[in-house]
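For homework, think about our next protein:
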Amino acid sequence: MGRYIVRRVLLAIPVLLGTTFVIYLAVYALPGDPIRALFGPNQVISPSVERALRERFHLDDPLIVQYGHYLAGLARGDLGTSFSGRPVSEIIRAGWPVTFQLGITAWLMEAVLAILLGTLAGVRRGKAADYTVLAGTTLAMGIPFFVVAYVAQFVFGVQLGWFPVSGADAGWPVAYLLPGLVLALGVLPQSARVTRNSVLDNLSADYVDTADAKGLPRRVVVWRHVVRNSLIPVVSLLGVSLGYMLGGTVLIEGIFNLPGLGYQIFTSIPQHDGPVVVGIGTLLVLVFLLVNLLVDLLYGILDPRIRLH
């Protein structure tokens, strides 16, 4: 187990370098001047001030040199400084709780609904419940989630007044239920279908016939045996979706005005604040890699036949 973890950590290093370089390249390619964006189009900048800022942030250096400076700082635990002078680590500390609460809320909704709906569809194969789940997931996959977000805001927030439509002042979980549900709907259809297919495979296994022959109640067979054995492919997908949710909160936080990491990226891109975008992007990549490692380790707990070497 220890060697497996070390090997996965070593393999994560080139992945981290590759993804952060792509993020850095995308930020570098943004049109416009970050210094001009910092001061605004109508404000006159002293040449000495502009020169000092360009030297401080290495803006006149080639891309690879800038990226080298960033990696050197990252090796020291320094995620950089925004063009406004605020450390990126401070911005992350302020926004991380919001993003974490939103991501966990959405992930829990996805996990519970995917297992319940997928199990229901699998057990009721060919019946109304199965057709309803399949039709609902097909419809959900065909509608862009930002459209769902605006419709949900208008219907459940403005018209019905069930949920707040903006900000996190209401606290957890009230302020995160509606955006969390919208975020969960982006990956729920795939998770529910994978659960359904896995349940169907296990329902035809020999151990189910044996349990039925022993006279065990059907609900015990399903929930104690079938569902547990069906969770291995589902856990893999849920692990990936957790990383997706933490990294995919940019538009959701922007739409619902939640002051998390996604909102910081959402507002930093138009301002050309590259250090904030790259620093937060690096953190989200690290979280995604860690979640995938934890999912792999969880395989061995769910199925002792799996050995990690």
Remarks:
- Residues 72 and 78 are 8 Å apart (CA to CA).
- The chain has a mean pLDDT of 83.
- Residues 88-123 form the longest helix (36 residues).
